[in-house]
Amino acid sequence: MKELDPLVFLAVLHEMMGALLWLLAGLAVLSLATFAAVLLRERSVSSARLIRSEVVGVLGGFGALVLMAYVTVSGFTDAGGPIDWLLIAVIWGLGAAGTAIAAYAAQGLAVWLRQIRRPAGLAARRERTA
Amino acid sequence: MGEAHGLKRRDLFKLGLAAAAAGTLPGGAAASVPKVATKARIVIAGAGAAGLAAASRLAARLDGARITVLDKRKQHFYQPGFTLIAAGLKPREYTVSANADYLPRGVDWVQEAVAEFDPEGKKVVTESGEAIPYDYLIVATGLSLDYGAIAGMSRELIGKDGICSAYAGPDAAMGTWHCISRFADEGGVGVFTRPNTEMKCAGAPLKHTFITEDHLRRRGNRSKAEILYAANNKALFSVPIVSEKVRMLFEDRGIRTAYEHVLTAIDPGRKLATFTTPGGPVEIKYDLINVIPPMRAPQAVRNSPLPWTAGPFTADGWVEVDPATLRHRRYPDVFAVGDVAGVPKGKTAASIKWQVPVAVDHIAAAIAGTTSSSAYDGYTSCPLITRLGRAMLVEFDYRNNLTPSFPHVVAPLEELWVTWVMKTIALKPTYLAMLRGLA
Ligand SMILES: Cc1cc2nc3c(=O)[nH]c(=O)nc-3n(C[C@H](O)[C@H](O)[C@H](O)COP(=O)(O)OP(=O)(O)OC[C@H]3O[C@@H](n4cnc5c(N)ncnc54)[C@H](O)[C@@H]3O)c2cc1C
Fold first, then answer.
1. Are B285 and B172 in contact (CB under 8 A)?
2. Which ipTM did the prediction report?
């Protein structure tokens, strides 16, 4: 048997999801980049935000399982062996990590945007009073 | 399959999503090989799974070749999906697309069937009488379903009066689901058959049996039904270790078996099926019958000099090719891939994934004046659904060895959800990528 060629893997994923693949890949890159930017800018981890993100992540993990159950017309009650449980854990983990990172990035971005707008707003008001 | 061992080190996310990509329809794209310049004329008879995959691979491999595909049919059927339609899980459209969507650029499509193969004159003749000469011919016509060989049976009956047969097409698969669903409500005697010929996806008759049993159980009607699986010979599957596993599962599910029972006639009015057995004809009353017809090479192939002239593949006209190279044993410029090839295993789409690159490599080598050592080992794969939500990833070769794509990870003889996941979401994209020559 030949090796699992990454190009074959990509071709199959593309066939499976079509444009959705690029949308998902774009979303993943975007949230990772935003996450990194937020971390770099703040140079610390906000623990309140982290906890909120983790809660979202837990739900996201279950969301991923529900999605998987939907597209495979089955459910995790069908697990029949250790590899199935492992797959379920991996799907949950990926869903959880993905949504947690996206949630953290989104919250960080929201704060960032508010801070950008506020000084601008203050400056405008100062101009009017002057 | 030593090379596949590396897979277990790969992360399991990949495994979950692309298992079938690597496993059930595996292989690498031939992209890295330099193109062979040629003016050769290559004719491909049939634009099914094998014909389209061959066209895509040849177009990518050869530079300047004139490749002509012949097929009367415009529609393309993803046939492994028929099983999912018949299980009530997918709509009819899931399996239907257009051949034109997969034909690579630069390949001509003659929308006609081949009426005559003339390997002496190195040409094929279409139904309208046009002769198309070739330097190399790939026979990829698939097989024909001989419903007429069962007295009283015809395609029009499928879906009515408890007669199931997902093989005949998407509508038949839908009709089959309606029959199965009614049976799962009402119960009665369900009889599941398989033909006494070579057949595509020999696991499918077993899958239909398991799926029907599970629907009965889920609707709380299992006790109202009796299920009988009629095997054509002394085994439930051609690979002994798989046959034995299926025997155990049938016992577990309360499915009775009758060996050496070959369906020869049905009487739809009286719901009576007649089987030939070693002890003479046997009649069985049914409420539901799954009819899988005898399968043979298409007429034009059977009437040509291409079939075997001795041995087990003679009667049904399978093309006489070398099992390893898929090259014709008497006409070296002819190859046969897919269901029509007269080889002991390999009538699945998963096999085509392995057969086509071998045939293409031998053609490219012949054109370049070199030789090829590519060989097909009989790889055949069948995600054997054993209940809704679980399947066994049965993969084997000519020698009846199991050839698991994920050794030590996905156990071949275990009913697993991961295998079901592959069957339901990864197999069709892998099949389509194969048609495009990408998988
Ligand atoms: C119910 C069912 C379940 C299956 N399940 C699985 C599965 O789970 N896994 C798996 O791997 N495989 C499965 N298969 C098998 C798989 O679909 C076939 O092995 C595969 O489609 C064969 O490809 P092919 O190109 O040889 O034939 P086909 O795909 O049937 O194509 C043959 C083509 O040749 C054309 N043709 C016929 N005669 C002529 C002629 N004289 N001239 C020109 N063209 C002609 C036809 O119009 C057709 O388009 C299943 C099949 C069925 C029916």
1. no
2. 0.85
